[in-house]
Amino acid sequence: MDFESLSAMREAALDYFVRSRATQRRRALMAQPDAGEAQGWSAIAALGWTGMLASESAGGLGLELDGAAEILRAAGEHAAPEPLLAVAGLSALLLARLDTPAARALLRDLIAGRSLPALAWQESAGDLSAVPLACGCERRAGSVLLQGEKLMVLPGAAASGWLVSARGDDDAVILWVPRGTEGVSETVVPLVDGGQASSLRFEQVALPSDAVLAEGPAAQEALRHALVAGQILQAAELLGAGRAMLAQTLAYLRTRSQFGKPIGSFQALQHRCVDMFIHLEVAQATLNEVLALANTGLPVDRLEAEASRANARCTAAALQASRTSVQLHGAIGYTQECDLSLFYKRVLCLSAWLGNVTAHQHRHGLLAGESEATTATIAWTGEFPRTADWAAMPEAEFRRMVRGFLQQRYPRQLRYLSHRARWSEMREWYLTLSAQGWIAPAWPEAHGGMGLPADKLIAWIEELEQYGVARAPDQGIVMIGPLLIQHGTPAQQQRFLPRILSGEHVWCQGYSEPNAGSDLAGLRTEAIAGRDGEGEHFIVNGQKIWTTLAQDANHIFMLVRTDKAARKQEGISFLLCDLRTPGITVRPIHTLAGEPEFCEVFFDNVRVPAENLVGQLHGGWTIAKALLGFERIFLGSPKQSQYALGQLARLAEARRLFADPVFAQRFAALRLDVADLTAAYTSFANIVRAGKPLPASVSLLKIWASETYHRIGALLVEAGEEQGAVAGDQVLDGQTFNVLSPLIGATAAMIYGGTNEIQRNILARQVLDLPA
Asked: How far is the C-alpha of 406 from the C-alpha of 463, rounded, in Å?
């Protein structure tokens, strides 16, 4: 569905759940569970939501999965008590997929609200398999005999019958067992959210032959598709519940006072809220990406992997939100009187059904690994075009092209460098990309870039990281170039952009100063405007620090103070300066890794032409914020984490660590962290490509990226055991390898570009609107 249709669907669902007092009805159900979950079902049927995923020809709404997900997300935001997921989701999906006369009749009854069939498929705790193991059936003359057990069947007592998966003589079978059938015993299990589940036992249950709805591969595939779509819809409901708990917590923190001020002004509580927000935003990005993939008709095994990815992320985010919310509410959050308790318990139920976080991480790891192992590598035999319709090129073909280019052109000795590459090392590779027209993949074609759409940009990043391509000095490409495209004058664009592309100009950033790091507006480097016989200019005096690879650059973009009497942010301007200008001194600073990656830059009466002013005089803070947005999306790129994860995988393969289930589980979790970082990055990259300003929420990307990078680096050192104490490079499979490099790099990543603590402050104030 398009954005407008999805928004309309969401608004309609939210309106219904408000009008029908869904949260209050959940409370009533918890107080009196025997009242049943079907009380509001007739209203759901009247809305057509019972058939939201059924085709219009079957009497349904014919929604795609993304439309249904909006309804489930709204249900989660109001802790709605109706068994939407169990009946309108799982059961309706299965019946719609079967498309046999008997299944169509049952689906009509479901859509009309006359029947609530429950899917009975699970046979053991934690089982995600759609293959029945113990429950079996055999055909007799004119009948079918069913024997076995099923557990966690939802809804419980409200179900009008059961759609039972069983093993027949040769393959899977789906049977319809109406309530009241002789030989069926049911144990109703109360759930913590007020709902019910049933455990079923079938003792020589004789069913008519027309009870068989489907068998063989058709039955198996239908069940797998129903379960995988149900797991994605469950992720949407969990996400809705998590967002509701965050909203309740923010409202509470803004109004609850302690020590004479709102508790929402306490930084410790603000940062806890920000972490809730980050987890939920990453979960939203992941769910959006998986829903888009689901609409493309993926094969079921790939869809199972993606469903597990979405479910694991949304479940983890909702659980984190539920636990944090109770803590931040204090004593009132521990009571039944607080509405938070309804959402807390709903999340507990949802997170335990259809697979928990660990189960889905494990399944994703297995399926993703199988997919990679079976993907044939086809060599690229075509030309390498300077320009093409990149959006129309299939992703697999684009990846093969990039991979082929790297294999043919990238210097082997520069693969998997453990240090930040210097210009002297990377110059030839930079010029190779420049000659090919590929040096600026994200720039618009009109300015000499490739103009890659977001999906191809992600593929580009992934291919370079997987091949071990070192990062060239690229401040011109990723920072000042995009800024000049948006804010520079035509003359500045014509003067500087081609020289960035050609490698003639190598840039560094001059923002931080001693005592003005995260407090960037506290800078003191001064530029005094003047005019003489040579024209208008600025005279710059002061010092910059933490200037990355300034010793390799020949140009610097910097913030300078041009009005000392103005407010801190109002007296700043943005200048471009040639580092070869007299009066500039550069002194390298060695990092923890012993590399001269950062520098101090001193300015002593440095003359800068006035034409190098970007934007308005004293208007540099606006330019600075735009550049910080570019910096944060760059620092939020999955590049570093993908590289570190690749290094971890190399070490694990060499040391056979994947045979250790504990390591394999930790690796699977980190792999999902990187995949979901990629989803979040894509959503912000699309904003940049649309030419829109980046919102303050881009800070979440820098936090998630750097902390994911750090977690991977920490596991790499742990997995390296004694190698984690070895200084310098080692050799692994004939290539350079450094166990410590990612961890040390990640430590810096959480500091530069504004520390993660400062980023959390920005999110707390500018996005979550918590009090100062």
From this structure: 9
Contact call for residues 611 and 491 (beta carbons, < 8 A): yes
Q: Is 397 a catalytic residue?
A: no
What are the Cα distances from residue 428, in Å, to 258, 414, 643, 690? 61, 11, 22, 32
d(CA 655, CA 653): 5
Token representation of residue 438: 């590929």
Give the residue-averaged pLDDT of 243-254.
96
Helices H / strands E in the chain, number of each: 23, 20
The token pair at 355 is 């697979």
DSSP secondary structure letter of residue 735:
E
Strand positions, DSSP E, 663-748: 730-732, 735-737
Q: How far is CA 289 from CA 442, 667, 679, in A?
A: 20, 22, 6
CB atoms within 10 A of CB 227: 25
Cα(29)–Cα(195) distance, integer angstroms? 7
pLDDT tens digits, residue range 88-119?
999 999 999 997 899 999 999 999 999 999 99
CA distances from 467 to 60, 108, 255, 667 (A): 48, 54, 52, 20
Question: Cα separation of 521 and 618, whole Å?
Answer: 12
Bridge partner list, 153: 198
Give the closest residue to 713 by CA, choosing from 634, 651, 632: 651
Q: Which residues pair with 575 in a beta bridge?
A: 558, 613
For 63, the 3-state DSSP assignment is coil
Bridge partner residues of 145 (DSSP): 138, 206
For the chain, the farthest-separated pair of C-alpha atoms sits apart, in whole angstroms, at: 109
Cα(715)–Cα(125) distance, integer angstroms: 30
Residue in 82, 215, 304, 631 annotated catalytic:
631
Mean pLDDT of 163-182: 91
Task: Give dist(CA 77, CA 74) in Å, integer.
Answer: 5
Beta carbons of 222 and 94 less than 8 angstroms apart: yes
- Per-residue DSSP letter, 617: T
Q: Which residue, among 279, 274, 284, 278, has the nearest Cα to 250 in the 3D structure?
A: 274
